[in-house]
Each structure stands twice: as structure tokens, then as C-alpha cells.
Write a structure and sequence with these properties.
single chain, about 325 residues, alpha/beta, Rossmann fold, six-stranded parallel β-sheet, four-stranded parallel β-sheet, about 35% helix, globular
């Protein structure tokens, strides 16, 4: 099958102008499709181009009124003219897509002006009508659409859609088996530091403060604390150097949304601390009181990290299962 992989954002169209080079599910999706034997073109679409050579177009979506949604016009052309379309999403922005669609539909003239002024891409009337059709008639109104979403097998997946995208048929896929592990230096337990590492581009200070940790917290990449972006390889090494990894609460917690941080913690044999809305769907070893974790000796910390890693890898999809689910989705 000849597949076009495109979408709203820079990452979804394989842009070389990305601000941050961190792992996302878009590239894992491309790798999985190619492993299934499909030919994949990962690129933006020019409005008006001939797409008849593609058997399927995978169109990545998110809130249209976003500074990252620079390729909405090309995506609308894809939705209108491709032989077959399947939508997918990549990051947490999908959690707020429903309200963004509603606002855009209800004030479309303002959206068109905003798009031109903020993204530097004026829409002519034909393009504006095409974008409106995609947003209003395809994404916002019933009967809805099929959406590939990166999700762990656990969690309450429907949480992602409630009061957000009620007409969507969710097609969960677990990218874990497609992740190529980053190189890092493994650290023996005696040399691991008793600290929590919180690597995030967002401000999660309130959540971290609510954990009442006695170990120090090392922040990495928090722009609101004046920190610079740190490459993912450096983050993974700091996980390996430390006993604790913090994964703050995000919107739609408990849905089972896929995050590679869980995998990096298991890989480096560090202890993951996530929000209770997420951990309630996981093994009990993820729900231990923070103080009881911090009071453990090296042998007990080592055992807890191993038990968490065993649970994680035992509850994610194998590559065989993942590829079968993905093939079923694109055949549907």
C-alpha cells in the first residue's frame, strides 16, 4: 500500500525546522507502517496537488487554532481529495481539541484572520472553504471519524473523548515496541543518587510540590524556571543516574495516554512516580506512598525498580500485536 503521512503540525509533516528534537509517536508510526511492508511518504501537502498515487492518507490532527498547526490548509486538501483517509494524533493537544474545534467553527472569520496574522499564511476563499469543510463537516459534526491514538493497553481510554470528541471512534495503538532505546551508561545501585528527576517543558511545580518529596528534585527543561531545553539523551542519562523519575499529571490523566517517560524509567531501572489518576490503572508498585519509597535501602530500591520494569514490559503490546492492530486499523 502506498501511504501518505501528513498532518497539521511540523512534526506531522517531517519538518526539519523543529524546535525540539524529542521522541514522539509520529515517527514510530511511520516505522511501524514500513515494517508492515507499506511505502510511506512523510511530508506536507501542497493545496491543489494530485494525491491519486496514494492508497491511504494518514492525517494528523490537533487544535486548529494553535501556533503549531501550520499545515491545516494542506491537510484540508488531503481530506477532500485522498482516496481514503484515516486520522491520527500525536500529543496531549488532542485532549483539548473539541473545544478548539467549537471555537473555530463558531467564529470562523476570526480564525481565518488569526491564521493569516499569526502563521503568516493567508487563506484565499477556496482554501478557507476547504479548511472549514474539514473542521466543521468532518471533525466537529457527527457521524465522527476514526482516530489512531497512542495509548497504553491499560487506562480508561474513553476519558480522552468525554466532553471533547464524543463522536470519535478511538483506535488505540501502543508504540512501546517500536522505540529504539537510547544509549546510556548504566549506573550501579551504589552510585545512583537519591533524587527525583522531573524533565518537562511545562510548569508542573504545583503537582511536584504536592508530592512532598524529601529527596531533592532535579528539574530539566522547565522553561518557566529559566532552564534550557535538554536533549533526550541527556535526560535518559540523568534518569539512569538517579533513583526517581517524576511524571506529572496531565490533562485527561487516567486515559492511558502513551508517554515514553514510562519506558525510559523502566529501561534505566529507576522508580517512576506518576499521578494517582494514572497509577490507579497500573500495578500496586506504582502506587506506593512517596515516603515509603524514599525510606528504602539500596537493596529495596533496586528490587522496586526491577518489579516496576517487569510490570511495565509485561503490560505493553508486543510488536506482533501492535502491527496486527495497526494493519486492522488501516484496512478498516
Amino acid at each position: 500500500m502506498n501511504i501518505l503521512l501528513t498532518g497539521f503540525t511540523q512534526r506531522m509533516v517531517n519538518s526539519q525546522k523543529l524546535r525540539y528534537d524529542y521522541l514522539t509517536s509520529v515517527y514510530l508510526l511511520k516505522d511501524a507502517l514500513r515494517e508492515l511492508g507499506h511505502t510511506v511518504a512523510h511530508r506536507p501537502v501542497t493545496y491543489g496537488e494530485d494525491l491519486s498515487c496514494f492508497d491511504l492518507a494518514l492525517v494528523g490532527i490537533g487544535p486548529p487554532r494553535s501556533f503549531t498547526a501550520r499545515h491545516v490548509i494542506g491537510s484540508s486538501w488531503t481530506v477532500r481529495t485522498a482516496k481514503k483517509v484515516l486520522f491520527y494524533c500525536d500529543d496531549w493537544s488532542i485532549a483539548n481539541m473539541g473545544p478548539s474545534l467549537k471555537t473555530t467553527v463558531n467564529s470562523y472569520d476570526k480564525y481565518r484572520k488569526w491564521f493569516t496574522e499569526n502563521l503568516g499564511q493567508p487563506m484565499d476563499d477556496e482554501e478557507a472553504n476547504s479548511v472549514y469543510f474539514m473542521i466543521n463537516d468532518v471533525l466537529y459534526r457527527p457521524p465522527g471519524f476514526r482516530l489512531l491514538a497512542p495509548m497504553f493497553p491499560w487506562g480508561r481510554h474513553q476519558t480522552l473523548l468525554e466532553d471533547n470528541l464524543p463522536y470519535v471512534k478511538l483506535l488505540p495503538w501502543d508504540p512501546t515496541s517500536m522505540v529504539k532505546e537510547l544509549p546510556f551508561t548504566r549506573v550501579v545501585p551504589e552510585n545512583k543518587q537519591k533524587r527525583w528527576v522531573c524533565a518537562t517543558l511545562q510548569n508542573h511545580t504545583d503537582w511536584v510540590d504536592d508530592q512532598h518529596a524529601t529527596w531533592p528534585v532535579q528539574w530539566m527543561g522547565n522553561r518557566r524556571k529559566g532552564e534550557e531545553y535538554r536533549p533526550e539523551e541527556e535526560v535518559v542519562q540523568e534518569y539512569a543516574n538517579s533513583w526517581g523519575v517524576l511524571c506529572p499529571r496531565y490533562n485527561r490523566a487516567g486515559s492511558g495516554w502513551w508517554r515514553v517517560r514510562y519506558q525510559w524509567a523502566a529501561m534505566t531501572r529507576s522508580i517512576l512516580r506518576c499521578d494517582i489518576k494514572d497509577s490507579c490503572y497500573m500495578g500496586e508498585e506504582y502506587r506506593l506512598p512517596l515516603r515509603s519509597v524514599e525510606m528504602r535501602d539500596l537493596l529495596m530500591l533496586t528490587d522496586l525498580a526491577r518489579v516496576q520494569a517487569d510490570w511495565f514490559y509485561g503490560h505493553t503490546d508486543s510488536k506482533q500485536v501492535l502491527l496486527a492492530k495497526l494493519q486492522e486499523a488501516i484496512n478498516g
